[in-house]
Design goal:
Distance between the termini: 160 Å
Structural class: mainly alpha
Number of strands: 0
Helix content: over 70%
Strand content: under 5%
Order of helices and strands: HH
Radius of gyration: 51 Å
Largest sheet: none
Length: 124
């Protein structure tokens, strides 16, 4: 019976080895399937993270753009005010040029004696 026991032990060892191999194959398959499921989620999670970071960047750029827009509006108002001041100054200059142009014409028509009399009277 000793031989039969050895054969029985060998058969049990073969069955146990086969079961261990089957269990290992199942564990490896389960591990691969689990990793495939998480690897499908990982790219999505990475893409979501990229989208979130881009959203943060876009929001920051929009805030900066709003600041620049308000600064531009202020500069437009200042330029408009300066344009009106320039127009006013140009009108004053034209008026002064016209007034002095008329006076120059009057002075041009005055004789030398009349000019001498004018300055003599003025600086007495």
């Amino acid at each position: 019976m000793v031989l039969d026991n050895n054969k029985l032990v060998m058969k049990i060892d073969k069955i146990t080895g086969t079961l261990v191999i089957i269990i290992l194959v199942l564990v490896v398959c389960l591990f691969i399937l689990t990793n495939n499921g998480t690897s499908d989620l990982d790219p999505y999670a990475k893409q979501k993270q990229k989208i979130d970071s881009l959203t943060v960047c876009i929001n920051a750029l929009e805030k900066t753009q709003l600041k620049y827009d308000s600064t531009i509006a202020i500069y437009r108002d200042i330029l408009s005010l300066m344009d009106s001041q320039i127009d006013s100054t140009k009108n004053k200059i034209k008026k002064i040029q016209n007034d002095y142009g008329k006076k120059i014409k009057v002075i041009s028509g005055v004789s030398h004696d009349e000019l001498s009399d004018f300055f003599t009277e003025r600086y007495k």
